[in-house]
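tool=predict chain=A
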Amino acid sequence: MHLCCFVRGIKKHPCLERVIHINLSKISFIMKEVRAFSRAGKLSESNTVYMSWGKGKKIHLRFSKSENPAIEKLYSTHFFKAQDRT
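tool=predict ok
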């Protein structure tokens, strides 16, 4: 329920870190491992801008309480296998 409210951009939950039920050190560890595994597998990175959806004004969704741009970028990075162009 709370994650759904975050995605919809409801102001009750201003950032993702407030609605997930894992401590921040575990999240940080998981994100570092995913990044290391992805780079070792030669996956490409892509940053995505997340916006609220539904009725009303669209707002940028925040992931971290601190609003640190570096942390926001880490949360919004996707990894994918680059397709061969041959």
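The mean pLDDT is 77. Residues 2-80 form one domain.
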